[in-house]
Amino acid sequence: MKKTKLFFVLATFLFAFSNFSAQSKNAKFEKEKTEVSTMLDDFNVAAANAEFEKYFSFFADESTFIGTDATEIWNKQEFKVWAKPHFDKKKTWNFTSVRRNIYFSKDGKLAWFDELLDTQMKICRGSGVLEKINGQWKVKQYVLSMTIPNDVVDKVVLEKSVLEDVLLQELKSSKK
């Protein structure tokens, strides 16, 4: 009977300790999730308000932006050059997250996310990788993509084929 009690006490203690440890870890990542979510919201607001310096301060120095067009893949400096005229004319984009998922590496130094966005292009998907640099989350890679409902994929493919067939030929010939 004493062995059973001792086993029960030890099992209860181990369960409680492991549960506490898991809760502590989850609490840490909940705080980080809030930080990342706030950062991403601020990132979107800076673009909507055409705040050029603030918007680009969310990007790491070595980062990549991948846009909806197959030709849009830029490092931070290239993206700044492309975006500057839009910010100067106050003709930027206004994205609002309607659903967001955030994940973390075990060491908590990297995060990645995917989100559905309400945009002028209707529903888009933003996804990316963030790195904690000097205590702040910075965008290392951002990917913006348009969603296409399955019911209209054939129509969209037909519409874009004329343009993308030419681009595909260029890409295939430059691959050699």
TrEMBL record:
<dbReference type="Pfam" id="PF13474">
    <property type="entry name" value="SnoaL_3"/>
</dbReference>
<dbReference type="InterPro" id="IPR037401">
    <property type="entry name" value="SnoaL-like"/>
</dbReference>
<dbReference type="InterPro" id="IPR032710">
    <property type="entry name" value="NTF2-like_dom_sf"/>
</dbReference>
<feature type="domain" description="SnoaL-like">
    <location>
        <begin position="36"/>
        <end position="149"/>
    </location>
</feature>
<protein>
    <submittedName>
        <fullName>Nuclear transport factor 2 family protein</fullName>
    </submittedName>
</protein>
<feature type="signal peptide">
    <location>
        <begin position="1"/>
        <end position="21"/>
    </location>
</feature>
<keyword id="KW-0732">Signal</keyword>
